[in-house]
Design a protein that fits this description.
Blueprint lengths: L1 E8 L5 H10 L7 E6 L5 E7 L3 E7 L7 H7 L5 E7 L14 E2 H4 L18 H8 L18 H5 L18 H25 L1 H14 L2
Antiparallel strand pairs: 1-5, 2-3, 2-5, 3-4, 4-6
């Protein structure tokens, strides 16, 4: 993944400023924030979606993921960070469909609540429509058919009938008329050209024909 922005986490540039940058960045649809803590071996990544949403996170050493990983990473007060561009690739390990608005988290830093209750967007389907992120949270995905009958599995694919009004079945009269007119023009031009080139021969022929009938 390409590094878009990188820097140090300090008192002057804290996690709150970095979160706002991730939420407001326009050049990357789904940025990933990488965080390293200088005071411990804590390091990990947080995934974002357009519209200023945090969708998940993962701590590298332990494999811990979800809201708890996000909470621990956002508690770092001294370290370094990098905002990454996944280049349109789906980064599944930092997407647990949390849908937490950055503006809800910033006022609570650095001590985020242990539970994400009250932080997760209750209407993530609206966020999907507004941001264009097509990663649908599991609770919104339609139920799959668990068991198909033998008849359903063996059912032959249905034939597709083309509508009578379909463009593929319409005869293009306009094209035919244009083609026919072109043929007439060519034929007429050929006759005129022949008369112009062989007018002496034609006059002789008609004179002889006329005289022979007298």
């Amino acid at each position: 993944m390409d590094v878009i922005i990188e820097g140090k986490i300090t008192a002057d540039e804290g996690i709150d400023d970095i979160l706002r940058t991730c939420a407001e960045i326009k050049s990357v649809k789904t940025p990933v924030l990488r965080i390293n803590d200088n005071n411990s071996d804590l390091q990990g990544r947080i995934g974002f979606s357009q519209g200023g949403y945090i969708v998940g996170g993962k701590i590298v050493p332990t494999g811990e993921s979800g809201y708890e990983a996000v909470r621990r990473l956002l508690s770092v007060s001294e370290g370094n960070y990098a905002i990454l561009d996944p280049m349109r690739k789906h980064v599944a390990d930092v997407n647990q469909s949390l849908w937490i608005k950055v503006e809800k988290i910033v006022p609570l830093l650095p001590d985020l609540p242990e539970s994400p209750e009250g932080l997760i967007d209750p209407h993530p389907q609206d966020a999907i429509r507004q941001t264009g992120n097509m990663e649908i949270p599991p609770n919104l995905q339609p139920d799959e058919k668990k068991d198909l009958s033998v008849d359903e599995r063996a059912e032959a694919p249905k034939s597709v009938v083309v509508n009578a009004a379909s463009k593929s079945r319409k005869f293009d009269l306009g094209y035919w008329r244009f083609f026919r007119a072109g043929l007439c023009i060519i034929a007429g031009f050929t006759v005129v050209l022949s008369v112009f080139m062989y007018h002496n021969e034609l006059l002789t022929f008609f004179n002889n024909l006329f005289l022979s009938q007298k």
